[in-house]
Amino acid sequence: MDWADDIAYSIHDLEDGIASGLLRPSTWRSDQFMETIYKSVTEAPGVWVEETAPGKEEVEAVLGDLIDELAPYEPDIPLDIIREISRRYINGFVIAGDVSLTGSGDSLYDFRLEIPREVRVKNQVLKAITIEYLLKSDITAGVFFKGHEILGRLFNALLASCEEEKERDRYLLFPRGLRPQLREVADNQSDLRRQICDYLSGLTEGQVRKLYARFFEPGHAHLGS
């Protein structure tokens, strides 16, 4: 499961970043980029506990191969090219493992998935690109901040609408079908907050945007779902 998670994390976010234009492979040959990725790979917590971290040449070789494949297609790398390269990496990661027996074999915990070191280095390099230049970018951070603020304001508005002082207006910000459930937990703040969280988490991104606009944007009077 850990390796499956590493594969998904190292490939799909990277694919999305390149497709969106946030990641530009033609800029990855700079000394600053190389140094940042090398540091991220070698200092990744818990990764190189049992062996020596890769050297700079190993990291640069992985980066060089990826740059050579993608950079010639810039500035607008075709999506089919990105996906084909992604499929190749995924396939290589998936078939690289070998199961070894570490016990009697009577338990699932008696087996271990062994991944060749060079494959794990490649995987870690791809993850580092995503971490350093996508997740830590000011653009991504701004999106996360905006989402946090939107959900926070919605939660607070919905919670306020549940206060006893609202009297007849109590729960009116919620869909009619949800109001009986809210009344059942009205005296338990923990359960009430959980109901609100469950309601918000069940909305799509588009529904959240519409709800926020309805609550906070002047002139917005959309009455649909």
Strand order of the largest sheet: 1-2
How many domains? The number is 2
Distance between the termini: 38 Å
The best one-word shape is extended
What does the average pLDDT come to? 90
Number of strands: 2
Helix content: 55-70%
Sketch the major β-sheet.
2 strands, antiparallel
Treating each run of at least 4 consecutive H or I residues as one helix, how many helices? 9
Q: Structural class, please? A: mainly alpha
Instruction: Give the topology string: H per helix, E per strand.
Output: HHHHEEHHHHH
Low-confidence blocks of residues: none
Integer-rounded radius of gyration:
24 Å
Describe this structure in words.
This protein folds into two domains: 2-136, no CATH class; 140-216, no CATH class. The chain is extended and about 70 Å long. It has helices at 2-20, 31-42, 56-70, 79-95, 117-135, 138-160, 179-184, 189-201, 205-216, and strands at 98-101, 111-114. The protein has 225 residues and is mainly α.
Concise structural overview:
The protein is mainly alpha-helical and 225 residues long. Helix content is 60%, strand content 4%. It has helices at 2-20, 31-42, 56-70, 79-95, 117-135, 138-160, 179-184, 189-201, 205-216, and strands spanning 98-101, 111-114.
How are the SSEs placed, and which strands pair?
Layout: H1 2-20, H2 31-42, H3 56-70, H4 79-95, E1 98-101, E2 111-114, H5 117-135, H6 138-160, H7 179-184, H8 189-201, H9 205-216
Helix pairs in contact: 1-4, 1-5, 2-3, 2-5, 3-5, 6-8, 6-9
